[in-house]
Amino acid sequence: MRLLLAEDEKRLAELVARALRAEGYAVHVVHDGETALAELSAHGYDAAVLDVGLPERDGLAVSAELRQRNVRVPILMLTARDSIAERVAGLDAGADDYLVKPFEFAELFARVRALLRRQPAVLPAVLGVADLALDTRSHVVTRAGRELSLTPKEYTMLQYLVRHAGRVVTRAELVEHVWDDRQDPGSNAIDVYVGRLRRKVDRDAAVPLIHTRRGTGYIVADLRDAIRGGAPSAD
């Protein structure tokens, strides 16, 4: 999942970005409202974390302008002011949720997960294909009832593939939604991560679920079902 973090306090921005990346999110950081507005208007982010007190254009103005432009990205607003009026203003400006500084990272992660489950369409509490199940709240993944041990990056990649099960996910999509501007996926990093997922998800399974479309991307599907466009290669 790709997030935009707009925070003018650079040290705090780096700390929050580092924590979110450790959870497996791809994070792009900006430090003013005009840049945040341009990024969110032009690119497909899965969610945005906006500080209210941004320079050039504050978080409330950014949120309101995005909604006027019909940009439906989920927005979590950050503020140092804990007042009912402030929270009401943020929600009225189009924010989906509100978090007061200082905050615990555990609460930030939980609120981001909640946003990603709700928008742009409701994400189920459990995603699944065949006997593979992903709990989007706890990030627990099981195959045939057996819990799989995944790194945050592996979980993020698998969740994106499962969210789009039955269709080919291109390498470009994975780069956009799983890696961020400070991470270079390299020429073979995606193949390496897909290989790791195959070993964990499809190991000892009667039916493999992760397949490759050569030259295009990857697809998660049960081969016992009809797959549009023919059967994918399973290299």
Kindly summarize this structure in a few lines:
It is built from eight helices and twelve strands.
Structural write-up:
The protein has helices at 10-22, 33-42, 59-68, 84-92, 105-118, 152-163, 171-178, 189-201; strands spanning 2-6, 26-30, 47-51, 75-79, 97-100, 126-129, 132-135, 141-143, 146-148, 169-170, 210-213, 217-220. It is α/β, with parallel strands linked by helices and 235 residues long. The strands form 3 sheets. A 5-stranded parallel β-sheet has the order 2-1-3-4-5, with helices on both faces. The two termini are 26 Å apart. 34% of the residues are buried.
- Class inferred from helices and paired strands: alpha/beta
Largest sheet: 5 strands, parallel
Strand order of the largest sheet: 2-1-3-4-5
- Per CATH, the class of the largest domain reads Alpha Beta
CATH architecture of the largest domain: 3-Layer(aba) Sandwich
Distance linking N and C termini: 26 Å
Radius of gyration, in angstroms, nearest whole number:
19 Å
Total individual domains: 2
What is the CATH topology of the largest domain?
Rossmann fold
Mean pLDDT: 86
Tell me the number of helical segments per DSSP (H or I, 4 or more residues long).
8
CATH 4th-level superfamily of the largest domain:
Response regulator
Pick out the low-confidence regions. none
Helix content: 25-40%
Order of SSEs: EHEHEHEHEHEEEEHEHHEE
Number of strands: 12
Approximate strand percentage: 15-25%
Shape: elongated
